[in-house]
Amino acid sequence: MKKLTRTLALTAVTALLLASCSSDSSEPTAQPVGAGPSESATISPSVTPEPAAAAVKVEERNGLQEPHPVRWEYATVGVDDMTLTVTWWSKSEECIGLDSTEVVYGGGSIGVDIIEGTVRTDEPCSGERILKSTVITLVQPVQGRDIRPLSVV
User: Which of 11, 93, 112, 113 has its CA 20 to 30 A from that of 105?
Assistant: First the structure.
């Protein structure tokens, strides 16, 4: 089990490095850093993120179609060391919703995926992107581990 966890963590780090070299996105690529267990810390890209308060808080929804992982911008570790507030850019909730989150725990890192899906609608969606966030309750404390994307999209 430790070997599988270590392999997943190494795969996530390698994928993150490859994505940062080949990304053509106009938005910054997440480049997380670690946090100590007794402090609230922000895992962030190379630029200062917008405040999480500006993000629309969303929760998981049922009935979404075509679920897929999305690139998140940054994660903030809660003062309890057992929650993460993850923030990303997406279309409005009328078009794209939060399907689920996935968390994988490793020795030196915690991998996090945000999975979004399409809302079934006959109405066209605007191309406007908004900042979204969700709170993830962890089953293990962060304890200074790096927070990393599981999938690179």
Answer: 93
